[in-house]
Amino acid sequence: MSSEIKQNQKAGANSQQTQIQNLTIINGIDEKRAREICDEKFDLIRKEFSSEALQIANERVSKFEDSLIPKMKKIDGALESFSDPAFQYLISKAHRTAACTDRDSDYDLLSELLIHHVKNKNERKVKTSIGKAIEIIDQIDDDALCGLTVIHGAMSLFPKDKQLENGLQILEGLFEKLIYDALPTGYEWVDNLEILGAIRISPVFTNTDIIPKYAKYFSVDAYTGIKKDSENYQKAMTLLSSNGLPISFLQPNELNDDYVRLPALNENDVDNLMWVLAPFSPQQNKMIPTAEQIAIFHQIWKMYDNSSVNKEFANKNFEKKFLSFNNLSKLNNWWKSIKHNFSITAVGQVIAHANAQRLESSIPPLK
């Protein structure tokens, strides 16, 4: 009797076959096969439902799969995950949750969580959190989910653009989407999230205002600057002009009309300052300052009026500017109303981030 292994298989559409001696391995899963696998996995669950419930379950699971498959197709190699036993196990979990919820947003949330698994399939801790998150999505109250997402957004999502006006505009647009429901009040929503393991309550209340957090991120203390028409102002202008640097480097100060400032958020940033020669020309050649010119920037930086009074003035004006944005004002008022101190668990974090990505697709993956 020969010990040679023989196996004959037919490849489906868009599949590739690799012949190794007499063993044929099929590589490649297309959308059709991915849907077949979903159907096969749900077949194992259908018997758990009565005939009356099965039609509803089928409709809900179809909505979930219609959300998941197109997203998977957009990611190179993602459809291959349907051949992974761990992913198939999560599919079964997601099917159960999808069948039990009538909230359309949950189908998108489940698909985002599975996408997150695909992108982090080698991270065991992440995989564990995703599995638990899939189990509890349908049990989170609407307002609690919105609140969890907003807190995650305020703690973890920041604009790359740290220029004050642009950055605040980006934040305003973000929270316009994240505050998609009435923000929760009272204690019930916190209790709901703690029971489900999405947050961990601390017995010590240490909630702090949100505005100082953003002031630090935007380096508001760098918006002190040099008072116009002061002795230091005249010195700074002379230093720029006598060293071949545009006087436009002393820009208007967004947080103090009486002062000017360099376009830098800390002293290290001045090493990277440059300017555009003929800014309206097609080339827009960037001029890189010499070491001597960079030294001039450092001299000017040290002329800033960094008195506590001036810093407080800048921070007060930042607060006014922050609160002038409708959704940032909503965020601040709600944040101040929270009377319970808690931290978001790994499970709560993946849920909140998945929901945020559902609402704003440009948000990068959770790391």
**Helix and strand succession?**
EEHHHHHHHHEHEHEEEEHHHEH
How much of the polypeptide forms β-strand, as a percent range? 5-15%
Give me the count of strands: 9
Name the shape in a single word: elongated
How many helices does DSSP assign?
A: 14
Which structural class do the helices and strands define?
mainly alpha
Low-confidence stretches: 1-26
Q: Major sheet, described briefly?
A: 3 strands, antiparallel
Calculate Rg over CA atoms.
Answer: 28 Å
Arithmetic mean pLDDT: 88
Main-sheet strand order equals: 4-6-5
Helix content: 40-55%
Q: In whole angstroms, how far apart are the ends?
A: 54 Å
Q: How would you describe this protein?
A:
This protein has 367 residues and is mainly alpha-helical. Helix content is 53%, strand content 7%. It has 14 helices and nine strands. The protein has helices at 31-46, 51-73, 85-100, 104-119, 124-136, 142-156, 164-178, 188-195, 211-217, 231-242, 291-301, 308-323, 326-337, 346-359; strands spanning 16-20, 23-27, 199-201, 226-227, 251-252, 259-261, 275-276, 286-287, 342-344. The strands form four sheets. Strands 4-6-5 form a three-stranded antiparallel β-sheet, with no helix packed on it. A two-stranded antiparallel ribbon has the order 1-2. Strands 3-9 form a two-stranded antiparallel ribbon. Strand 5 (251-252) and strand 6 (259-261) form a beta hairpin. Helix 1 packs antiparallel against helix 2 (51-73), helix 6 crosses helix 8 (188-195) and helix 6 crosses helix 14. The two termini are 54 Å apart. Mean pLDDT is 88; it is low at 1-26.
